[in-house]
Amino acid sequence: MKESYPVFEILSELRQRLSQNKIVILQAPPGAGKSTVLPLQLLDEPWLGGKKMIMLEPRRLAARSVAYRMATLKEESVGETVGYRIRFDTQVTSRTRIEVVTEGILTRMIQGDNTLDGFGLILFDEFHERSLQADLALAFCLQVQQIVRDDLRILIMSATLDGEKLSSMLGNAPIVSSTGRQFSVENRYYNFDPGAPIPVRMARAIRKALSENKGDVLAFLPGAGEINRTGELLEAEDIGALVCSLYGDLPMKKQQEAILPLPDKRRKVVLATSIAETSLTIEGISVVVDCGYSRVPRFDPRSGLTRLETIRVTKDSADQRAGRAGRLGPGVCYRLWSEGMTGSLVQNRSPEILDADLAPLMLEISNWGLKDVYQLTWITRPPAGAVNQAKELLEQLEALEDGRITERGKKMLQLPTHPRIAHMLLSASLPSPSPRHFGTPLSPGRGEGSVGLATDIAALLEERDPLPRDSGADIMLRLGTLRKWRSGERVNAERNVLERIERLASSWRKIFKMAVDNSIPPDEEVGKLLAAAYPERIASQVEKNSERYKLANGKVVKLPPHDPLMREPWLSVAQLDAGSGEGKIFLAAALNENDLLHLAHEQEVVSWDAGRGMVVGALEKRIGNLVMESRPLTTIAAEKRIKILCEAVLREGLKLIGWSGTQSEWQAREMSLRTWRPEEGWPDVTEEHLMKTLEEWLSPYLIQASKRTDLQRLDLSSILAGLVPWDLARKLDKLVPAKLEVPSGSMISVHYSMQGEPPVMEVRLQEVFGLLETPSVNEGKTKVVLHLLSPGYKPVQVTQDLKSFWQTAYHEVRKELRIRYRKHSWPEDPWTAKAVRGVKKRL
User: Fold this and answer.
1) Cα→Cα distances 646→24, 295, 486, Å
2) For 170-260, where are the alpha helices, taking DSSP H only?
């Protein structure tokens, strides 16, 4: 083996680190040999003790290519020393010591043997991509290492990774760095016609790159669709080079054609997805053309599955792509964006765990034996909201019960797909458990026809729509198209999409040992199978022949205008856009209401009818939020009725139970004492606290209540008085009287504050003649603020010092009042004058 690979320069240090540490981080640029040379060099290490290795590769194409490259270096066939495992394809024998696997496969292997017996080293390649399954597999491996396998080594490898941060999260794991051998790359920005389709812009840029440079060209595009279209544009004219494609679904022969040098020395243009950024080494590349976009997995609420979404490339990915041009010598990278835009690119890709559907992860963790996801060591913690949403879905799919995995859940894990699809496939092939809720499988195993149909539906759901836009929402159209095409008929659909769908369907048929079925299935059978995958999306038409449907989860969604499915009162919805208001249905099938009856559960529904002002109840047969049948309840249990009455008060406010000014005044008096005399323990009777403790203090008085009139008849003053301890309640009127007598003999109301501010008394000036001191409450500790009024009840003075007022301000006030109120007597000496209620004529 040639020792020209940069990784040989750090091999000695890496061996030493692995011999002394259980976790090591390797930073090495693309082309250093970390994915292909390094594993072979570690096979005979003493600490490995002859055990095997597992190397995790994020993508299927990379896993196969890396395995083939290592086998070639050893001059062996794949399956001997080096093998691979990917979805629906395994090349491993008893002699295999290095197994290159994709992410879900590694998780399955750990679940199958949670001691990883026979394996001594787990390598996580391209860890910077931070896929959900890679994070999960690392969390599992760390726990295996901590509990049962302290001899297990973990090597985390990446070209662009914040090694220091990762090291700190893994117990200060040592970092080994390889500088690599990277030649300079000139970035040329080529931002022409940005509104044109990506294939058009890329074909033009590639032609320019070929004419201006020597060597082969590697062009990065988002996905297979753009690759195929760009290839067609290039092949339509003589560009003097062979055009090759490189993406995950290509046959191995085509992939090797793109990766290996051409025997006749012709120039080559490789049209690749982001798979070519790191793990793969493509011979002869000196020019890169980067469209600036990549396709990454994102949770798609429309389908409930994780799909690929086209996004702007991140800066670290853009740098890796450009670096591909500098492997052999100085290179050139054409970037299809402006130079100024580079600075605005996101620095690194976001960990998938932050915005992914966590149902597959939570099912794996439940099978691992944990109810709490946070018992594992995470590089990035799963968001709590997404965790709870995943648990709820798995309960509906009968994969979990009380947070623990069920037997059906374990069977679902054996299928290499999302829990939704697994549940549908098992619903077609296995007997149903006892019905418990609306997630129950739709019927006992329905035979080979249903299983074959389920395999086709599974493949359709996992791939993009093969039909043109505006083809309608009925999934039956897609099934019919697939089966006609499979029978050799001509169809109006994308052939390459149909081919991918059929490859998936064929793989499922092999698992279930099914023959091809090209018959046209009944519409309602398709709907039943979809409902098994999407129980919360069973939908009932809001009005006859309406576009609007209500889902079992409570949301309202709409079919496209004039869609033929509007004839159906019940639908099973597979793809939708929830939207901010009413969502849109993209893919659905008809359902027969009779097929849903066994899914429904009876439920007593008790509520407050605000219009009628009473508690009402019904016995409903429901699927989630959908009511299939309802009949009134003649008797409502007191406990439910009281709870609903309290909820009504919480919604409508205390006015519902007759709250008035009398209660507000009592409340202010009591709260004033709570402020003035904190040591005595006066209770909190604010509205906020009363609402918070409503059931506690109000429920005992609602035993016979069921209507608004019953609530209005409650003796609220007595109920509230009961909230105050008896020894305090008997002092309340003395400490904070509701009224005070003034010299005129009148009883004047005193207004108290909820915040304990000084109370206020509004009284006409003439009624307090002869009153020498300001009135007070709270055993004389709190003076009243007097609002002195004219005979016409207009304020003339505000004071809390009546004695001072008589001595000073009264004489000025008297002058004004004598002019305005001539018929009234305004004595010079208010100290000795007699207080009057009404008019006292002048003498």
Assistant:
1) 60, 52, 62
2) 198-212, 224-235, 252-259
Cα separation, 271 vs 199, in Å, equals 11
Look at residues 215, 182, 206, 223 and name the one whose alpha carbon lies nearest to residue 283.
215
Per-residue pLDDT, 431: 53
- In angstroms, the CA 107 to CA 100 distance is 13
The residues, ordered by sequence, that sit 6+ positions from 198 with a Cβ below 8 Å of its Cβ are 221, 222, 226, 230, 291, 293
Amino acid at 453: L
Contact 233, 200 (CB under 8 A): yes
Amino acid in position 734? K
The reported pTM is 0.71
Segment 29-58 mean pLDDT: 90
Which of 59, 502, 510, 5 has the alpha carbon at shortest distance from 255?
A: 59
Q: Which helix (H) or strand (E) holds 274?
A: none
The reported pLDDT for the residue numbered 394 is 95
Give the H/E segment covering residue 167: helix 163-169
Q: What angle do CA 811, 812, 815 make, to 5 degrees?
A: 90
Say how far residue 363 (Cα) sits from the centre of its chain.
Answer: 16
φ, ψ at 402 (rounded to 5°): 55, 35
Window from 194-208, 218-232, 302-316 with minimum mean pLDDT: 302-316
> Which of the pair, 599 or 297, is modelled with greater confidence?
599
pLDDT on residue 304? 59
Tell me the one-letter amino acid at 283. Answer: E
Say if strands 795-799 and 782-783 run parallel, antiparallel, or are unpaired: unpaired
Residue (of 469, 473, 668) closest to 566 by Cα position: 473
